[in-house]
Amino acid sequence: MKKLTLFLLIGFLSISIKSQELEVLLLAKNDANLLIKNYLQPVNQGMLFSLNNGWYHTAKTHKKLGFDITISANASIIPSSSRSFEFIDSEYQYLSIENGSSTINNAMGGKNNSRFSVRIPEAGNVKVAQFSMPDGIGDDLPLNAVPAPMIQASVGLILNTDISVRFLPTVKNDEFESNLFGFGIKHNLMQYFGPLDKLPLNISLFAGYTSMETNYDLNSIPGLSGSNQEAIFNLKAYSIQALASLDFPIVSLYGGIGFEKGTSELKMKGNYELSYTIEGTNTTVSETVSDPIDMKFDVDGIRATAGVRLNLAFFKIFADYTMHDYNTISTGIAFSFR
Predict the structure, then answer these.
(1) Do strands 225-247 and 293-312 pair parallel, antiparallel, or not at all (unpaired)?
(2) Which of 36, 8, 247, 266 is nearest to 146 (CA)?
(3) The total number of structural domains that make up the chain
(4) What is the DSSP string of 262-288?
(5) Cα–Cα dist 105/116, whole Å
(6) What is the dihedral of CA 40, 42, 46, 49, to 10 degrees?
(7) What is the DSSP string of 98-145?
(8) Which of 32, 29, 74 is nearest to 53 (CA)?
(9) Euclidean distance between CA atoms 57 and 92, whole angstroms
(10) Closest Cα partner for 146 from 330, 18, 334?
(11) Least C-beta-crowded within 10 Å: which of 77, 145, 147, 223?
């Protein structure tokens, strides 16, 4: 869980730290934010789409105090067009490509061969440093997709209404802490249609919200000098949908259409001691920057889902496919009673 979350949430930071070139990139200040944001965009957006999925596998609600426990895996597939970005020199003040391609593979892409120069005029001198772009690791993931495992529990209340709570077990140690919590509500509309509620058709309204927070202490990472260093990631995603299902004894066919929105924020806090060389000399100089990374990612739009569920008494197996910017596959099992 820790390794998966670290990649998904601060993937660029962990990859760059291994190459010991993150501190060089941080010299570029605002340019660093733009480059890292372009590199991380599909990971953050894929997480938002994944966490908005897997809420339901039928439009039918439980009887009063009926319940289910669901274990699911959601995977947002990153299209090939979103696995790279173009480095446009005019958008950057201090960065330039020293050699290699201007088409950069992002975190969900493949290998990179580009090396960058950082040149910052200051006090009559020019700071000079170089770094290489880290490779993406999307090719190492099934379907080149951003995954999000989930555990969820739902219970039936009055008025044909289900309340759902989803979570991942909190991971915490001296360096790392992560938690996820979500809340959903589903209300069956068939009760208002008189004798039609005897049909296998169910129509519901659903709303769901998921929040994920991760803090990672960077002070213990080799090669990063400074103090009070941490990476902070906050994610919030919600959706509002109309659901429909045909629920037969052995199989259920279900789907939904609606609107979704999500926001994620990534910050790198603390003080970082950076080193650079004055151009034309062998002089190495150090300086400290504070809170160098602060970026935000957003998604929103219409979504449509279609799926099938196999009903084996209280044991359910389901899979569905959602169409939005990054199409998402969800699959899982559920233990459902009443």
Answers:
(1) unpaired
(2) 8
(3) 1
(4) EEEEEEEEEEEEEEEEETTS--EEEEE
(5) 14
(6) 110
(7) EES-SEEE-TTS-----EEEEEEEETTEEEEEEEEPPPP-GGGSGGGE
(8) 74
(9) 46
(10) 330
(11) 223
Q: Collapsing DSSP states into helix, strand and coil, what is residue 292?
A: coil
| Amino acid identity at 290 | S
Pairing of strands 176-188, 251-278: unpaired
Domain that holds residue 246: 2-337
- Residue tagged 């299209």 (tokens): 79
pLDDT tens, position by position, 62-118: 999 999 999 999 999 999 888 999 999 899 988 888 888 889 888 888 888 888 888
Task: Look at residues 99, 83, 23 and name the one whose alpha carbon lies nearest to residue 326.
Answer: 83
> The pTM is what?
0.85
- Closest by Cα among 117, 125, 127, 133 to 287: 127
Q: What is the pLDDT of residue 305?
A: 97
Q: Which two tokens stand for residue 130?
A: 């170089």
What's the token pair of residue 114? 């580009």
Check residue 23 and report its DSSP letter: H
Cβ–Cβ under 8 Å, residues 45 and 70: no
Which residue do the tokens 């939904």 mark?
Answer: 256
E-assigned strands of 139-175?
145-156, 161-172
pLDDT digit string (tens) for 198-231?
A: 789 999 999 999 999 888 887 776 667 778 888 8
d(CA 247, CA 308) in angstroms, rounded, equals 10
* Residues 98 and 117 sit within 8 Å (Cβ to Cβ): yes
